[in-house]
Design brief:
CATH superfamily of the largest domain: P-loop containing nucleotide triphosphate hydrolases
CATH architecture of the largest domain: 3-Layer(aba) Sandwich
Radius of gyration: 20 Å
Strand content: 5-15%
CATH class of the largest domain: Alpha Beta
Largest sheet: 8 strands, mixed
CATH topology of the largest domain: Rossmann fold
Mean pLDDT: 94
Structural class: alpha/beta
Order of helices and strands: EHEEEEHEHHHHHHEHHHHEH
Number of helices: 13
Distance between the termini: 12 Å
Number of domains: 2
Helix content: 40-55%
């Protein structure tokens, strides 16, 4: 079975195109977004505005009449990694195909998508003792100290991780210390999970259009409650250091709430970080020569849906 995957940078319109394909196929969507997994943070993560519905003996997240899996299911203080995504996504793939529906993966988290397209190395299990020591160093010396530590031990791995992604930094250091060799060398030797036969469709937009969309979306977020949403999570008793708050831009919201910066600075920095994130996403995806790119700059949403439909129909013999 071949799995269609729709990729692209943030604000490229992946979700809305995917759900409109319901008019062409009987389908279900699996989200490959590392931020939309969290409960309570809907506005700042641009989560589909769906709801949980009871179907038979189970609850399913439904957006615009489409079952949308792997969103809004994890507590904000819980960690989640690429291997967990792979295991969860494969379960849904099997279930969806047993229901005679088409499973489409949609998202912009390249590492998650890579687990499906290329498999994932079976890394050493979590070591709580090493992790505790690393978190103590984080408390004492800060994020940059741990990033520098990773860069010294494994420059290649360090270049693959953003300096703000403290969870991946700690996990990488944990593995390096455990294995006593660089992460980037270890993964070459480890067995991998199976990969899937895939059709990857990428949405390309010009830098200017992506910038306009990101600015517009950020303005919408700030007008529609991202600050209140963040305050509500804090009021629930969650700490500012929880994994969910490592999502793009939330550090600036927290600084605003703590009166360290003003409203405009929070918004401007949120936009800047999102633009940088989009740049990193495109850099990741453009390396994959399997991606069939659609230039969306001058196309309507209907045109894009039609192009995606034709490509999937041809490749999957529908």
């Amino acid at each position: 079975m071949k799995i269609p995957i729709i990729v692209g940078v943030t604000s490229s319109g992946k979700t809305e195109v995917a759900v409109k394909l319901k008019e062409k196929f009987s389908l279900e969507i699996i989200s490959a977004d590392s931020r939309q997994i969290y409960k309570y943070l809907a506005i700042g993560t641009n989560k589909p505005q769906g709801k949980w519905i009871k179907v038979k003996d189970d609850f399913v997240f439904v957006y615009k009449d489409v079952n949308y899996h792997l969103v809004d299911f994890l507590e904000p203080d819980k960690e989640y990694n690429a291997l967990e995504f792979y295991k969860d996504a494969t379960k849904f793939i099997d279930k969806i195909f047993k229901n005679n529906n088409l499973a489409i993966i949609v998202g912009g988290t390249g590492l998650y998508i890579k687990t499906i397209t290329d498999g994932i190395s079976l890394l050493p299990k979590r070591n709580d003792e090493i992790r505790k020591e690393l978190k103590e160093k984080l408390e004492l010396y800060g994020k940059q100290y741990l990033y520098n530590m990773l860069y010294k031990l494994d420059p290649q791995r360090a270049k693959e991780i953003h300096t703000n992604n403290i969870n991946r930094i700690i996990r990488s250091l944990e593995i390096i210390i455990q294995a006593k060799e660089p992460f980037s060398e270890l993964v070459k030797k480890l067995p991998k999970t199976k990969s899937y036969d895939v059709l990857i469709i990428g949405f390309y937009l010009s830098k200017q259009l992506i910038k306009e969309r990101i600015v517009s979306k950020t303005e919408w977020m700030f007008k529609n409650g991202i600050i209140e949403e963040t305050r509500e999570l804090l009021n629930r008793g969650y700490d500012i250091k929880i994994p969910a708050f490592t999502s793009i831009g939330y550090n600036w919201i927290l600084k605003f709430i703590n009166k360290e910066i003003d409203f405009n600075a929070a918004k401007d920095n949120f936009i800047k970080d999102t633009l940088n994130y989009a740049k990193r996403q495109f850099t990741w995806f453009k390396k994959d020569k399997r991606i069939f790119w659609i230039n969306c700059d001058t196309l309507s949403e209907k045109d894009i849906v039609d192009k995606v439909y034709v490509k999937i129909s041809k490749e999957l013999n529908f």
